[in-house]
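Section 3.1: Structural characterization of target chains.
Under the original work plan, the team committed to producing a structural model for every single-chain target entering the pipeline before any wet-lab resources were allocated. The record below documents one such target. The sequence was received from the expression subgroup and is listed exactly as submitted; it comprises 379 residues.
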Amino acid sequence: MPLYHSEDQAMLADSASGFMADEGNIAKQLRHYRDGGCPDGFGHKLWHQMAEMGFTGMLVDEADGGLGMGHVEAGIVLEEIGRNLTPSPFLTSSVLAATALKHGSNDLKGRYLPGLVSGESVFAVAVDETAKHRPSRITTRAEKSGNGFKLTGAKSFVVQGASADMLVVAARTSGADDDEDGITLFAVPKDAANMSHDAVRLVDSSVASHTKFDGVELDGGAVIGDVDGGREVLNAMLAAGRIGTAAEGVGVARGAMDMTIDYIKQRKQFGQVIGEFQALQHRASHLYSEVEIARAVTIKAQQLLDEGAESADLMTSVAKAKVAKAAGLAVKEGVQMHGGIGMTDEYDIGLYMKRDRALQEFLGDAYFHANRVADMSGY
């Protein structure tokens, strides 16, 4: 397939671009909720507006009230979210949790998906247990208890965990901590007894939590997929989240690049616009090439994931690693080309650097995914 959007996808991009620029811009959202000390880190009003636009249920099947779209379409929205640094639970709720719930029972879907589609509900995913992404090792335990399970353990940096109406939790129901099998995913409601949150504000001003489960009682209906067979569901959820993170990272890179290009076209030094300096032109041209390559590999991975291709998982890690490099370059070049003011909070370019740092770590950094590509390629 061509590495550009179809006519319908281009129309969606125009719609998402205009909406995020008008309603999701930095002044209205990120700075407003950051400076106001909002405990959620995002605006529920905007989340409802996104639902009215149909964004929240993009990956939800039509039979369950959603739009039944794919990762290419979700990526279009995520790119605009990244471009405007719009704080929202779209990635955790509409991509990660929605992908997991595809594997849930009809009862579970009926319990949670309507709230997602309407914008009334926010979901989070609790997988990682340390500062680094390591999904191969799950120590949180879910032991049989009557007709259900008792959940014990802790999860780290659960983005929007304290604000979520439901958490998708990966726990071990059998085997050793590093075993591939023996994983089960659970839908844990926010009011579950013996669950606690220690909220922390991340570098990009989003809010995560260190979540503890001290014998949380769950009934059998909370299981997503099969008991002990949750690794496949977990992998599908992570693949969706990783390519979604890459798409948002492309948006961050493009937003930082556009802001920087605009700035060097206006800033004068020694009576000359600095964008006319050949050294800066070379750097800007190199940056543009890197961002376009990252965007192309991201679209390719999205297409493969939508097709269910065997190579989708490999290409997803390629995209995550490449975008991390390109976005990292974009924000660094942006701050440097802005000069000293690029280090101040008055200018938005520094906010792009902060968001890039958070995205790079989420669901595996460039080194994690480069190593994963090497392993999957037989090295």
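The first helix runs from residue 7 to 23.
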